[in-house]
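Here comes just one.
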Amino acid sequence: MTIAILAESRPGERRVALVPDVSRQYRKRGWDLRIQAGAGVGASFPDADYAEAETKVVPGRDALLDGARVVLKVQPPSPEEVGALPSGTVLVCHLNPLGPTGVMEALADRGVTSFAVELIPRITRAQKMDVLSSQATVAGYKAVLMGADAMTRFLPMLTTAAGTVRPAKALILGAGVAGLQAIATARRLGAVVSAFDIRPAVKEQVQSLGAKFLEATLDESSEDEGGYAKALSEEQHQRELELIADNIRDQDLVITTAQIPGRAAPVLITEEMVASMRPGSAIVDLASESGGNCEVTVAGESVDHGGVTVMGPTNLPAELPFHASQMYSRNLASFVDDLFDDEGEIDFDDEITAATCVTHGGEIRNERVRAKLASATE
């Protein structure tokens, strides 16, 4: 079986779906590897490193795809890339299957069997495949560095001949993987950290990292069966907004990470809250691509709102492509290794396979994607 790794075409995407060190995980199954020339350069993996790792470097996309059974990517394929995939190809990458694109329909029409890595279930067997967690780790770390750079203050306490500088205060909204990494990073840099999440179960994790947990009293379950936060009623949402408003005015750095799969991100920071913050403070909104947790966030931009810098970064893992690619590549290798049996066949009844398969046999198989498409046409 031949596995091909496409170079990324999305502007600003510097990650790659295979790093040289992970090649051996595929080769031990007897599979052949090809990679498009230059695919790893943006992540600091030159073509020569792949050649040394027994991965064939192929100059052109058409030659790369010719005869390949499996194609690996990071970002969803462009319409042009979908058109270049031979019928029967197995595609594994991020697909944004619940997003407002026509990619799913195009993949089905093309006869491509596609798997969306962001749909990997949160079960013990799938932990080593968890792409969302690995990339969220990168984003949470980078968000704190960006915020610290935008602030006009130090993060740590400093005792100098010129006097003592008090440590900055940081507030992390959302204590998932990105939020927990942001807490850990802000603590390492010396900030006094507090965090908020609607899921009481994360309190112990937040406190174990040395942060204060801001607790809201909610009358309903705040997480779904997969452990993700879910949308609250209007009354419950108002309670959490009041708690955030009471705490945000004294913060120097705020990182927001709250997202609900398949829905717009909840607004947690109103324009009035931003106005209550001190000039020189910073907000880094990691939910900017799904609408943003802050009312004044502009995706892909940094705006000054009354002296407060509000940043809406997109695709932060691509800002640290070396380690982000290493982690993503290991996740992908574990997924592909589990996907195929010794004869190269796929068991579509397998729990992980069934959860991640979006298109197969000319059809969209994923029920959530079909429901999303049906509602969009009503």
Q: What stands out?
A: The longest strand covers residues 32-36.
